[in-house]
Specification:
Blueprint lengths: L4 H9 L17 H11 L2 H18 L4 H15 L12 H6 L14 H20 L2 H22 L1 H6 L19 H10 L5 H14 L4 H7 L5 H18 L6
Helix pairs in contact: 3-4, 6-7, 7-9, 7-10, 7-12, 9-10, 10-12
Amino acid sequence: MDFNEPTYAAFFREHKIDINATKYQFNGSSKMKRLRAFLEIEPDTIASQILAALLDYACAIADVPKIDRDKAMLIINRLGGKPNVAGTTSQSAEEFLKQEFLSIDLARLNIDGQLQSVIEQRLHEIQRSLKAETSLATIFLCGSTLEGLLLDAATKHPEQFNAAKSAPKDREGKVRQLHDWTLESLINAAHEVGFLSLDVKKYGHTLKDFRNYIHPRQQAVQGFRPDQHTAKISWQVLQASVADLSGQRKK
């Protein structure tokens, strides 16, 4: 894993857990000791959810061998009270990258002509960035383009998105205006209402994390060094999202 303290806390916070809480520090304050305390204190079902999310994250940033993924899933399923089905494993980044999207039709997104023109221009620029191996530019373009497409989908289907359990709420418990939603919220709600596939949700969150390093200081502090593997995953997330949103892919 490539977590530092801020990203480690943020990962758990996405699952509504404060890993910095005192109750998780009775064995020490290191990341591993807090994780061990968490696994010891919390119910097995909650532990299984976190372990599954950690496995997904590991598969997103590196090619985890299938034998290791299978072993991990056996434990995760047992903790979660789920049956272990042969061949049921967490999809690796390499498996996700093998999917091909050669005939995506932007017209099927039903977006206005002006937005479609901008999206087409961005897709061409992303492809040029990939060839030039400008990984950071590729990631930022993919992240912002995905956010724009999901916001457009949410704007066209506000009732569905606003009714999603994952819809972000303000302090008074009211659903926030769509233009105030983060990319994370858009991804979660889009999957919940059936607009995005599970693999896109999983790797979409990885892209969201990468895109957060648009601020140079944050990138410097956290030591983020994107490479072509990172860029290719980001591009694959965007292509798969377009295929999902346009109905050209089974979810």
